[in-house]
Amino acid sequence: MTQQITAMRLAAHGAPEVLKAETLDLAAPGPGEVQIEHLAIGVNFIDIYHRKGVFAPPLPVPTGLGMEGVGRVTAIGEGVEGFAVGQRLAYVGGPPGAYATHRNLPVARALAVPEALSDRDIAALIFKGLTVEYLIHRCAPVTKGDTVLVHAAAGGVGLIACQWLHHMGVTVIGTVSTAAKAATAKANGCAHAIIYTEEDFPARVAEITGGTGVKVVYDSVGADTFAKSLDCLRPRGTMVSFGEASGPVPPLAIGLLGGKGSLFLTRPSIAHYTAVRAEYEAAAQNLFAAIAAGVVRADTITTYALGDAAKAHADIEARRTSGSVLLIP
């Protein structure tokens, strides 16, 4: 049995305006799938990469967008166990298609969520929170007493990272674009907020650390920050380049890493850190516990109607948002 739904889709890659509302027929869930009605949908920079067609390989068009959401189960496919109609769930990953009132989802990506947590908090935190979880606990683990540099510290991932790292006793140096964002980052656990439009951030990092540098740089900005970030690391420090908001990082002569202090470099993806179901569930439980304890919060949430997805993308790209961005069906 099919039903009509509304989805934001694109027929070609390009600017935000390629996102258009369409009425589609949604089939019943297939084997191993659950059908959900979305309650809140997270917007992330990976969606912008997908829209532009710069993510390798590009999504074939026409296509939907969106990699995360919170919804309520409306139907269950053959062979699905552990979920029931009416149950609330969250997800990250799977086929793009979250920008829709309803969708079918592989049950392997479905996560049962605590009833005490709100739809908006989960939608605001699930993708970005799982990103921070793997970055600071499994990709480049840090502990109390370490000092790190977090770029885009007032962004969705940045704020969560500042909160969680501060709770762990890690000193966070963050970069931001404005004084207002500096205040936001500091209010969320960033010990030192560098306004990179006014200051040379490697020089400030050297000043703050007494010339020793930081243990890890977490960089989602890419081209604009990568080269200078290497200069912020202490010997044997780790450069974690997990995004390209300003464009792709140019090719690197690996000998440079040796010359700058035997540095480590990784380009991780959340897909590879949540591909194994047991790891995915354990990471989610770690995140949900942090949310329930107030360690991780969604203090700043900007919401748009589902039909305003193009505006949401434009605002994110123009850096007019801070914190998490949601679409509400």
Notes on the protein architecture:
The protein has 329 residues and is an alpha/beta fold. It is built from ten helices and 16 strands. Strands 3, 5, 6, 7, 8, 15 and 16 form a seven-stranded mixed beta sheet that branches. It has a six-stranded parallel beta sheet with strand order 11-10-9-12-13-14, with helices on both faces. The two termini are 22 Å apart. The model has no long low-confidence stretch (mean pLDDT 95). It folds into two domains: 3-125 and 277-328, Medium-chain alcohol dehydrogenases, catalytic domain (Quinone Oxidoreductase, Chain A, domain 1); 144-267, Rossmann fold. Helix 2 crosses helix 9 (277-292). Helices cover 29% and strands 28% of the residues.
Brief description of this entry?
By secondary structure, the chain is an alpha/beta fold. It is 29% helix and 28% strand. Strand 9, helix 3 and strand 10 (171-176) form a beta-alpha-beta unit.
* Tally of DSSP helical segments: 10
Number of strands: 16
Percent in strands: 25-35%
Low-confidence stretches: none
- The radius of gyration is 20 Å
CATH topology of the largest domain: Quinone Oxidoreductase, Chain A, domain 1
> How are helices and strands ordered from N to C?
EEEHEEEEEHEHEHEHEHEHEHHEHE
CATH class of the largest domain: Alpha Beta
Distance between the termini: 22 Å
Tag the structure with descriptive keywords.
329 residues; alpha/beta; Quinone Oxidoreductase, Chain A, domain 1; Rossmann fold; 2 domains; 6-stranded parallel β-sheet; 10 helices; 16 strands; 28% strand; NADPH binding; oxidoreductase; ADH-like_C; quinone reductase (NADPH) activity
